[in-house]
Amino acid sequence: MQDNLNKYLTEIEFLHQQQLYRKPITYIPISATKVIKDDEEYLMMASNNYLGLTHHPEVKKAAINAIEKYGTGSGGSRLISGSHILFSKLEQALAEFKSTEKALVFNTGYVANVGTISALTSSNDYIISDELNHASIIDGCRLSKAKTLIYAHKNMADLENILKKLPYSNTKLIVTDSVFSMDGDIASLDEIAYLAHKYNALTMVDDAHATGVLGKGHGSVEHFHLQGKIDIQLGTLSKALASEGGFVAGKKILIEYLINKARSYIFSTALTPADIASSLAALSLITNDNSLVDKLYDNISYVQDLLQQNNINMKLMTPIVPIIVHSNEKALQIAKKLYEKHIILSAIRPPTVPQNQSRLRLTISASHTKNDLKFVITELAKLLF
Ligand SMILES: Cc1ncc(COP(=O)(O)O)c(C=O)c1O
């Protein structure tokens, strides 16, 4: 091994020692909740496919038709040649879905956060960010020239303390996950909107785990009845919307600004017709039929009852169920034992969560059967106590 690669080897060895080493595992997905691995079937409890739409016949058909009609790739970035016809349909549908003037599609939720935050703020500005915000928000803050200030998780007194010390007329952007990805709890968006108004700040909410889930699927702004009061609603097409991509919805002026300034939007090849067509189909299913979201909530309340019956003390607010076991080793051990029972559930460790907060993250889908859910919670409880 070359000497100048040794430091990477040392770091990988360190990750192994700390039980922090990671690698992707390949599966064959056969339905929204089942995968095949080594010729055996496993129950998927780690996916963000909250409404199970990845395998919905209409969503699949839309992607296949789009390939037949428009081809496989987009061939260029959005501002050069990649803005195929489906983009304008999806962006209009997203703006209506989120009750905003306009929407803009990015290639992933990750680059939507990075591009939007870094474009909207500059050196005399401030970003005020919840301490448990997603890595893509953190990376957006790192890329921005603004000063980033962190408030304690969901602590509105701390947020106000920070805001009141900042110059009233400078640009201030408060940014938060709405549903926190690793905890499943919900930001106090109504109080954030109130404080933003009081201290002249802009608001940005990341609805990656709220779209298709909160507010009859429309997201956190509808959930809190804050239409018109949150400046930027960010979302992803990759979770409940069963495809790939991210988006931002807000006032026309902000979208126009992002089109011209967000580097992750400008300098990357646009998503494929199949990506956009499947998102459009999923969005239309959620918009026209409440039963999918209702089914998800029915499953959430079923799991809530099962947790109680099995003495796992936890109040669920969303489909994300965090079982905090603290040590990396214990999280890995439980995930391994569940895998032996043909259940896939991820062991989440730092840096995804803070030190000593390692956990099993279980996610509920509308497509899980009651039998699936009962089996998982019963097996999990056996390993916890
Ligand atoms: C809160 C949050 N924001 C943004 C993202 C990034 O979205 P995407 O996976 O579409 O890049 C994620 C992904 O896990 C997330 O949990």
Automatic annotation (TrEMBL):
Pathway listed: Cofactor biosynthesis; biotin biosynthesis
GO MF, one annotated term: 8-amino-7-oxononanoate synthase activity
Reaction equations catalysed: 6-carboxyhexanoyl-[ACP] + L-alanine + H(+) = (8S)-8-amino-7-oxononanoate + holo-[ACP] + CO2
Top-rank taxon: Bacteria
Domain Aminotransferase class I/classII large: from-to ranges: 42-377
Matching InterPro entries: Aminotrans_II_pyridoxalP_BS, Aminotransferase_I/II_large, AON_synthase_class-II, AONS_Archaea/Proteobacteria, PyrdxlP-dep_Trfase, PyrdxlP-dep_Trfase_major, PyrdxlP-dep_Trfase_small
Keyword Transferase: yes
Necessary cofactors: pyridoxal 5'-phosphate
UniProt EC number: 2.3.1.47
Pfam families per record: Aminotran_1_2 (PF00155)
Presence of keyword Acyltransferase: yes
A Gene Ontology biological process term: biotin biosynthetic process
Location of N6-(pyridoxal phosphate)lysine modifications: K239
This protein's UniProt keywords: Acyltransferase, Biotin biosynthesis, Pyridoxal phosphate, Transferase
Quaternary state and interactors: Homodimer.
Recorded family membership: Belongs to the class-II pyridoxal-phosphate-dependent aminotransferase family. BioF subfamily.
PANTHER family: 8-AMINO-7-OXONONANOATE SYNTHASE, CLASS II AMINOTRANSFERASE/8-AMINO-7-OXONONANOATE SYNTHASE
Role according to the record: Catalyzes the decarboxylative condensation of pimeloyl-[acyl-carrier protein] and L-alanine to produce 8-amino-7-oxononanoate (AON), [acyl-carrier protein], and carbon dioxide.
UniProt protein name: 8-amino-7-ketopelargonate synthase
Gene that this sequence comes from: bioF
